[in-house]
C-alpha cells in the first residue's frame, strides 16, 4: 500500500495524518509519519481557505501528494438497507436503478458509496448494506481545493467510515456487544452504534462546541473566542475557575447525556440481545476537563476518549510526540481512519 495523507477539513481546524507501511514478518504494518493540525486553515472565504491549505501542505513537507478527504456527516445522507443480494455487483446494480427512491436527491446529483455488512440478523436471506451519499457539488469543491494545494485525491469518504476503521481493531468486542461512538464537532454531534466492525445505527444531534461556547459567552459576559478557551481550559471541572464554566454548560451537557441515553435505548429496544460495552468520545470538541467523569457518573457505563493511534507504530520523527498525540487522539480520529483506507 502506498503512503497516503488523511485530511479531515473541519469547521474550526484541518487535521492531517500521513501513514506509510513497512513489512514485518510478511505483514504490512502502518507507520505514523506525521500528524498535524492547522487551526488557521478554515475561513469564511473559500478562496482564503484554499490558500491557507496550500500553505499548510507546503510547510508540512509531507513525503507524498496522495490524499484521502473526509465528508462531514452533516453533508452526507446515510442509511442501512436490508437487501436480498449477496454480491457487491448486485447491490450496486440495485442502487443504480432504485437510488432515486432511496436518496433524498436525484442520483445524477449525488456521489454514493456502500458497504456490505453481511447477513441480516433477523433474516438470513438478506444482507445489511450501509449506504452513504453526498451532493456532487460539495465533493467537487473539496477535490478542487485539494488540487489547488497540489494534492492528488485518491479517495473521498464519510466521517463514519473513517472513524470505524480507526477504532475497530482496538475494541475487541463480543458478537453481542456494541460501542457507541460520540463524535462531537463545532456544529453538531454524530452518534454511531458500532457492532461487528461496522456502523449499525447512526443519528445526528444539533449540539456542538459552538453551542457550548455561546452559552459560556452569555453567562460569563466574554467573547465567543474567550469562551472557547474557557471551555477547553475549564470545561466541566467543578474546581476550575470556581466552577463557573461548569455551571454555565451543565444544561447543555445534560442534553448531550440524554441524547446518548436515547440513542442506546433506541438501539437496544430493536436489538434486545445486545449490550453496550462502552462509550467512545471523539472529535474536536471533547478534549475538555471533566467530560469523562461527568459522563461516566451520569451514564453508569465505561467512557473513554478515542485513541486512533493504538494500532499504529510511531516513526522516529513522531515518537517524541507520542504522549501529546495520544492525548489529542479524539481530534485525529477521522484523519487516521482516512489514512488507513486501503488504496492501490
Nutshell version of this structure?
Helices cover 38% and strands 31% of the residues. With 344 residues, it is α/β, with parallel strands linked by helices.
Q: Can you walk me through this structure?
A:
This protein has 344 residues and is of the alpha/beta class. The protein has one domain (4-339): ATPase, nucleotide binding domain (Nucleotidyltransferase, domain 5, 2-Layer Sandwich), CATH 3.30.420. It is 38% helix and 31% strand. The chain is built from eleven helices and 14 strands. The chain has helices spanning 46-60, 88-102, 136-148, 159-167, 209-220, 224-234, 244-270, 291-299, 316-319, 322-327, 329-339; strands spanning 4-9, 14-24, 27-38, 66-71, 76-83, 110-119, 127-135, 152-158, 177-184, 189-195, 198-205, 275-282, 303-305, 313-314. A six-stranded mixed β-sheet has the order 8-4-1-2-3-14. Strands 11-10-9-12-13 form a five-stranded mixed β-sheet, sandwiched between helices. Strands 5-7-6 form a three-stranded antiparallel β-sheet. The radius of gyration is 20 Å and the shape is globular. The model has no long low-confidence stretch (mean pLDDT 91).
Amino acid at each position: 500500500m502506498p503512503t497516503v495523507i488523511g485530511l479531515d477539513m473541519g469547521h474550526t481546524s484541518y487535521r492531517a495524518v500521513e501513514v506509510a507501511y513497512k513489512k514485518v514478518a510478511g505483514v504490512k504494518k502502518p507507520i505514523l509519519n506525521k500528524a498535524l493540525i492547522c487551526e488557521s486553515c478554515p475561513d469564511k472565504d473559500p478562496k482564503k481557505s484554499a490558500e491557507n491549505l496550500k500553505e499548510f501542505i507546503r510547510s508540512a513537507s509531507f513525503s507524498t501528494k496522495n490524499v484521502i478527504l473526509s465528508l462531514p456527516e452533516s453533508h452526507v445522507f446515510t442509511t442501512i438497507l436490508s437487501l436480498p443480494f449477496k454480491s457487491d455487483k448486485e447491490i450496486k446494480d440495485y442502487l443504480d436503478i432504485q437510488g432515486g427512491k432511496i436518496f433524498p436527491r436525484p442520483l445524477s446529483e449525488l456521489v454514493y458509496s456502500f458497504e456490505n455488512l453481511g447477513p441480516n440478523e433477523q433474516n438470513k436471506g438478506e444482507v445489511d448494506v450501509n449506504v452513504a451519499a453526498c451532493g456532487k457539488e460539495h465533493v467537487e469543491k473539496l477535490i478542487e481545493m485539494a488540487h489547488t494545494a497540489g494534492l492528488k485525491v485518491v479517495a473521498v469518504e464519510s466521517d463514519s467510515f473513517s472513524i470505524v476503521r480507526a477504532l475497530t481493531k482496538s475494541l475487541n468486542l463480543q458478537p453481542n456487544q456494541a460501542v457507541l461512538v460520540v463524535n462531537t464537532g463545532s456544529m453538531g454531534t454524530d452518534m454511531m452504534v458500532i457492532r461487528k466492525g461496522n456502523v449499525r445505527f447512526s443519528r445526528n444531534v444539533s449540539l456542538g462546541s459552538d453551542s457550548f461556547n455561546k452559552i459560556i459567552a452569555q453567562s460569563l459576559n466574554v467573547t465567543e473566542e474567550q469562551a472557547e478557551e474557557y471551555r477547553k481550559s475549564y470545561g466541566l471541572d467543578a474546581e476550575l475557575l470556581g466552577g463557573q464554566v461548569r455551571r454555565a454548560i451543565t444544561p447543555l451537557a445534560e442534553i448531550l447525556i440524554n441524547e446518548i441515553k436515547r440513542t442506546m435505548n433506541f438501539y437496544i429496544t430493536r436489538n434486545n440481545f445486545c449490550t453496550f460495552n462502552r462509550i467512545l468520545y471523539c472529535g474536536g470538541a471533547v478534549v475538555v476537563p471533566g467530560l469523562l467523569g461527568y459522563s461516566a457518573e451520569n451514564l453508569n457505563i465505561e467512557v473513554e476518549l478515542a485513541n486512533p493511534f493504538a494500532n499504529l507504530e510511531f516513526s522516529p520523527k513522531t515518537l517524541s510526540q507520542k504522549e501529546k498525540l495520544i492525548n489529542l487522539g479524539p481530534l485525529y480520529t477521522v484523519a487516521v481512519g482516512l489514512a488507513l483506507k486501503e488504496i492501490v
